[in-house]
Design brief:
Layout: H1 2-42, H2 45-48, H3 56-67, H4 74-102, H5 108-125, H6 127-134, H7 142-206, H8 210-225, H9 227-230, E1 247-252, H10 256-268, E2 276-282, H11 284-295, E3 303-308, H12 321-325, H13 329-336, H14 340-343, H15 360-363, H16 368-371, E4 377-381, E5 385-387, E6 404-406, H17 426-431, E7 443-447, H18 448-454, H19 456-466, H20 478-484, E8 489-491, E9 497-498, H21 509-513, E10 517-519, H22 536-540, H23 548-551
Parallel strand pairs: 1-2, 1-4, 2-3, 6-8, 9-10
Antiparallel strand pairs: 4-7, 5-10, 6-7
Amino acid sequence: MALRSSRTVTRTGIRLTFNLFVSFLTVAVFLLLALPSLYTSSADPSDLGVEITRDFRGVGSLRRSVLALKSDPLKPRLDQIKKQADDHRSLVLAYASYARKLKLENSKLVRVFAELSRNFSDLISKPSYRTLFDSDGNSMNESVLRQFEKEVKERIKATRQIVAEAKESFDNQLKIQKLKDTIFAVNEQLMKAKKQGAFSSLIAAKSIPKSVHCLAMRLMDERITHPDKYTDDGKPTPPEFEDPSLYHYAIFSDNVLAASVVVNSAVKNSNDPSKHVFHVVTDKMNLGAMQVMFKMKEYNGAFIEVKAVEDYKFLNSSYVPVLKQLESAKLQQFYFENKLENATKDTTNMKFRNPKYLSILNHIRFYLPELYPKLHRILFLDDDIVVQKDLTGLWKIDMDGKVNGAVETCFGSFHRYAQYMNFSHPLIKSKFNPKACAWAYGMNFFDLDAWRREELTEEYHYWQTLNENRTLWKLGTLPPGLITFYSTTKPLDKSWHVLGLGYNPSISMEEINNAAVVHFNGNMKPWLDIAMAQFRPLWTKYVDYENEYVQGCNFGF
């Protein structure tokens, strides 16, 4: 009984203790939640010792003072504004640099970008705004920050507007620059192609077509097979070869077919072939072929003399400057080194690198009075011409004491002496007029008596010797001819000699048909595959297709 009473008392004590704990916990929670509310709603501000203004600014100042205990919310805002200013400053600097790189013709845009960049720097450096960056964050003035933000935004707006306007200009400039680069690259390729084309054209012009080589070989074979039939050894020289009363022509060539076309065309178009004498001079290698070619056919009574240049013993290196100069190793290298990289170094003189320009066959024209001492007048013809009319009218022209009758080629500022000679050389400058009109080789009527009187062969020797190092004129025979016959040339009517059929496709057929002589000067010779199709028939109609050796060599004209 006593035990039961004791257990009852214990349980009652435990229950009472638990109830007291719960009540205490409830009161504690209530006080914790209710006290702040009671404090802010019922407490008198005077009791707290704080004077609170009831407007917005006062509330904001109080709240900022409380938050400033941890951090100032205006500091991140200031950092963001400064970052935007720095970013746009970098942007305008980049655009200014790019504008300079593009080398804009109008530098105003570059100055605008530079000014914008300085504006951003000056704005940040203003004393009134430096306090924003120098403050510790507790004393930052929001009104100053707002003014700073306003000015930054105004500059950013102006910057973006100018950048937007400049972008289109930059894009155009970039396109123009790319176009210029492309044009430059294409021009470089074009110049390289022109050099290679000029070199290829030079090779083509120097080459001998297979058919022409075939003809020379077959004729030479005939000459070797029947030596007695074609030789002139031991025979007296026909008096017509030295008769000054006849019409004499000089043809210097190593091309059998070309020389035969010149003679065929002149004979066919002459009024009385029996009064015409043709003096054909070639080299020793082609002499036999030439002899056979001109002995196989009758030329309506015309006389044809065929000789080798080696037969004229006075033409040697001790007398002829060109032959002496050919002994120079440097000159041989210049002419005979045909590597592309070397041949295209001097594009101006590339076409004159042809060894034919130092060939004695090409310079023998300066020795006409000595080659034909008994003649008074002679007509020189190149082997790339075609005679279309009777030429005896040339012998009736009054030469007025002049030596060389030739057609002038100048028009405007073209084909003047200045284009053929080096007028920076004091000797050339003192002796010749750079505006003097040039004339053409190909058909030249020479008064040999006047030539001898003027001693022009000696004059040629003097100038050719001075030009050993090629400092006075370009290579070839025209410049020394212009010098030798300076002031001693009589201009002929242009209808006597029409040039350019070997390079100029725009020559009118009316002009060609009215010409006494047409000249295929240039690289596109009529016997080459590169000849101009519209002019080739003028030459091919005088090819002797009845000749058995011509028929056997497959000329595809």
